[in-house]
Design a protein that fits this description.
The protein is mainly α. It contains twelve helices and no strands. 67% of the residues lie in helices and 0% in strands.
């Protein structure tokens, strides 16, 4: 990691610590039914989320192949969550986490993010740290926007082949399983620095083969249903593919 990026992360961690301190104080005041404090907490959340969104744009500037990726992942993930009968609050949590999944890539070298050749084992280890970095950055976003766990787990897989902790099965939260599927689907249907886009039919066949092995079977079924019945989602995906 470059010294410049390291300095940015150190600064972000300091800001996060201060935000956590302020939010704890606000929570205590909210518990006392102080309406003015409640309003201040909401404003603080919105201000912090706006900062995170700016960081997402910074990441997209580092890696042009990810422009619009987070927004599309969020849209696909919510469509899957709705078909799995998640509550409105749970769907909102999924949406926000989808927008922030790759925020940790702010700490990854652009040379790794845009490399056209296969990553070395060491480079892959570095890339995988983006989930830990991202979870730390978004940790201050509190209920109902507690998305740190989802950011941290979205690359875990049912059979334990994922990262960072090789979790298995139900040890991975349902929302993280939804996001992992949506992230993989969106990534595969568009061109990347190191490969061409895959056709949707090919991608869905792959996901069905992996159902109950690496991806959640119910999530895969819900994704397939959403793609075949949600005309608005279908139009958004087509526009996204055309723009990348």
């Amino acid at each position: 990691m470059s010294e410049d990026l390291h300095a940015k992360l150190v600064s972000l961690e300091a800001e996060n610590a201060q935000l956590r301190k302020e939010m704890r104080a606000l929570r205590r005041e909210v518990d006392k039914s102080d309406q003015a404090a409640a309003t201040g907490e909401v404003r603080l959340r919105l201000a912090y989320f706006s900062t995170i969104q700016a960081l997402v744009q910074a990441i997209e500037a580092k890696d042009p192949y990810t422009v619009g990726h987070s927004e599309m992942v969020a849209r696909v993930a919510v469509a899957v969550a709705q078909r799995l009968d998640l509550t409105e609050d749970e769907c909102e949590r999924v949406r926000i986490a989808g927008l922030l999944l790759d925020i940790g890539k702010i700490g990854i070298s652009g040379d790794i993010l845009t490399k056209k050749e296969d990553l070395t084992a060491e480079e892959r280890k570095v890339l995988e740290t983006h989930v830990s970095i991202g979870a730390q950055i978004v940790e201050p976003i509190i209920y109902p926007w507690d998305v740190s766990t989802l950011v941290y787990q979205h690359h875990e897989r049912l059979d334990g082949s994922g990262y960072p902790e090789r979790l298995r099965g139900d040890d991975i939260t349902l929302e993280a399983r939804i996001l992992g599927l949506a992230d993989s689907f969106v990534a595969m249907i568009v061109r990347r620095a190191y490969r061409d886009a895959h056709g949707e039919t090919e991608v869905l066949e792959y996901l069905r083969r992996e159902a109950d092995r690496t991806f959640d079977h119910g999530c895969v079924n819900a994704l397939q249903e959403a793609l075949s019945t949600d005309a608005e989602l279908r139009a958004q995906i087509d526009r996204f593919k055309a723009s990348v």
